[in-house]
Write a structure and sequence with these properties.
Layout lengths: L14 E4 L2 E4 L8 E4 L3 H6 L17
Antiparallel strand pairs: 1-2, 2-3
Length: 62
């Protein structure tokens, strides 16, 4: 979760895909992108992360 508006509240979300990268749509109706969480802009806007599924329920390439 990110605060791109600078108010400390969630204003943007992405899905972490590993190797320091996350997938997201930078704007409403915009093209989905793959960006680095280490990029200066996203690093500054980062608020927190949450795990939706635990590893026991996650199926990878069945």
């Amino acid at each position: 979760f990110f605060s791109t508006a600078g108010h400390g509240r969630v204003s943007h979300a992405g899905i972490y895909v590993g190797d320091g990268r996350f997938v997201h749509a930078p704007s409403s109706g915009g093209t989905v992108r793959l960006d680095s969480v280490d990029a200066k802009y996203w690093n500054k806007a980062y608020l927190q992360a949450k795990r939706v599924l635990n590893s026991e329920t996650l199926v990878v390439n069945p």
